[in-house]
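=== Structure Prediction Worksheet ===
Name of assembly: unnamed complex
Input type: mixed (protein and possibly other molecules)
Chain count: three
Listed entries:
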Amino acid sequence: MTTPGMIHRSESAVSVELQTPDMTINIGPQHPSTHGVLRLVANIDGERVIDVDPVIGYMHRGYEKISEVRTYAQITALVNRIDWVSGFANEIPFIVGVEKLMGVEVPERAQYIRMILTELARISSHLVFMSSYPLELGATTPLMHALREREYILELIEEMTGGRFHPNFNRVGGVKPAYGGGSTTKKQAMDIPSGYFQRTLEAMDRMDQICKDIDTLVTGNELIKMRTVNVGVIPADKALEYGLTGPNLRASGVAYDLRKIENYLPYDEVDFEVAVREGGDCFDRYVVRLDEIRESVKIVRQAVDQIPKGPLQAKVPRILKAPKGQVYSRAENPKGEFGFYIVSEGGKMPYRLKIRSSSFSNLSILPWILKGQLVPDLVAIMGSLDFVLGDVDR
Amino acid sequence: MSDSPDTTETEADVAVIDPLEGYAEALVEKVGAIGFTLEFDTVRIHVEPSRWVDTIVTANEDLELFSWLSAIDWSKDVEVGDPVDDVDALEERFEVLCRLSSVQNGDGAIFVATLSKDNPSIASLMHEIPGAEWHEREAHEMFGIDFEGNTHLIPLYLPDDFVGNPLLKSYPLLSREVKPNPGDVDVEPMPAVEAEAETPAEVTSEEAAGDA
Amino acid sequence: MNFWLELVLKLVVVLGFVLTGALVVIYAELKAGSHMQSRIGPYYAGGRWGWAQPLADGLKFLQKEDLAPAAADRTVFGWAPYVVMMSTLAIFVVIPFGPDMVGRDLDLGAYYLLAISSLSVLGILMAGWSSANKYSLMGGLRAAAQLIAYELPLVLAVVAVVIQAGTMSLNGIVEAQSQTWFTVAGLEISAPFLIKGQILGFMIFMIAAVAELSRIPFDMPIAESELTMGYLTEYSGIRFTMFFLGEYASMIGLSAIAATLYLGGYDVPGLSGNILNVVGPGVMIFKIAILVFIIIWIRWTWPRLREDQLQKLAWHWLIPLALANIAIVAVFKVAF
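=== Predicted Assembly ===
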């Protein structure tokens, strides 16, 4: 006999919903796997992320404000510090933009040297990715091998420009000519170091070898595939909405490479392919970068073959004044599309310099893509986007 | 309407039209903008602020990649840097810029909307193009421009207790208050240039030649 | 010999062996791992070969400040490393290094081993919970799930060996492996269980052992690049040394168990009797060294598995395979 208040045991709910409150944890700003000072305020429920709010700005250095009080030559020295992993490649869009404004024609030899150094910077940046991404997944060995090979590239860059990470090698009108030799009153402008191209070709052979090694160690590894295939899939239309560029976009199936589209350096005179993969998961982003190293090696070999003789810098006035006008110049940074919007009012300094940094846009997709992922996948996805905080925060 | 120094025109063929000019005109037609400016291979499409979202969304159909969104502060008095070339003729305003690019070819355009200084506010693109959210947050905190409809307009780079909008021309550069511009000091010229400058007659012709 | 004298002697020998062995294994990991990464490894402490590096590390830890987080539960926080260490050391009581060189030859040797080694889960949970740190808690929970999941394949693999040997006593298992299998031209051939059909069991055991050790590829609980050391985050000084030594001691312990169960223990084909008391320890150490080297090798080559993949491996693959293994072994034992 049951009274209205009594519930028969068989009718009561068998499964009780366990209320487990979700945790808000801070990943960063000091953390082994965020590429710099990035803070993610993550709301997690056990192992699953509910939502993520990135907090950036720890490295904001005020580039755009300070550029308003620096002459064009001084800005050239600052610009390579934005994305410090690929030092040389950052200078290119700025210097090309300034040359466009001033109408300066750059000699062929200087353009080839710029191209070689940019591709070396690209290889160097992708090798950093090769070393740090498997480390985040737990494989500790590719770190050492990739960074060891990177030393060869950095030595080459240092030999030519004097700096491993911050070359400051571009000048308006070409590249920096080294002065030495000649008499004490009249110095001669010298060319690049002797035997340089020989060493470059040897380094490129080593790059081929390390690509093969990393292929065996990482790409063919079943466990890496388990961790990265179908993890963090970014469909092409979402990528375009968020402004993703570079290897991230090319891994989602969009063959957009500014080296083929814009003619800021003589890429049309060398033969290379754009590395594209369909799919858009972490594994594709990793393979695209590995393929890009191979393509860059091809470009460097051909450029070394084809480089013409000539001066290293065009004649430009001592005080550089740009005419009034606005120009947007962009280039293919290892991380993506890197652009400068220079607003000049005729003067030594720009009126406004807007920096379009690739990692900023690459990072902005994080809140969307990390919804509902597992915590280990969070690390895998963040690593695969390959951003640098200096680029994000400027 | 628009006109501007078109860098590909030479004296020999005045009739050659820069292909970019044709492209810009077609784009103005398509989105219903006010006009365009073309200089140094950069296309700028001037847009009425009230039609901002419609224009961008229409253009986005061809120019699929949303590249960036930012602003420029045009002021007569500047705390930092040089003022504009023709200070008296300047209309003080904000310009909001949005760059869209195409991924099939090298097309792209920068859409410019002019806002007044008193109450700078424009509709937010965040609901049509989600990537615009962060760019609008940055423009908001740097310039003080209000983006209506952006639900997440909190500071991006600056700490929570920061007062002011740093990229405004009226915002001083603190380090400059402490120490003058290091670039004002005349640097010692390179040896080669100095040697050539020893004959005064050549100095003027070289400096006057400008770029070559 | 006097019971108490024998007891003290055995304690000293076992503790000495385990702790020295742990230091040697730490050195081996540093050197082998660094050569796999084309580095040199320890170079300064102790001359060119850096053999004093683990000693130097140990001394450094001993003189560190005794820190505990303010919100931590001090009793549990303090006891956790000792629980882990205790369960590891207790394994060595039954492992035979020679026919008479064993702490105590229990009849339930295998059973005792598995029971005692699963106490370490308790220690890890204590560490994760009492640290008052969200990362530690997450690490502790991951550890609990992983260790409990991988206990089962471990146990089932051992069950198969017990069936084949017919006894749970470890000395008995080694003797079963030294039994003549067949004679060839007058030579009596005996084979360890690895060759006599336990190859599947051996692989299951090794995978489960690496998972029990929380080493890469199963180091979700520690997951350095995600959780900054997981349940070990708040530990420093002597307590951290206890965990650290405990991990390497378990590595030796589990390798020793595997060597006894699958590789024939102290037995050398052709020798028998008292000479094995002298040669046995050397043979065991050799076999342990091979297995330890394999475990180190795996750690430096592969990335880590995600938690759900780890669990899937245990429940979908290892446990059914282990059950199948038991069935096959039982059938063969009865039929032949």
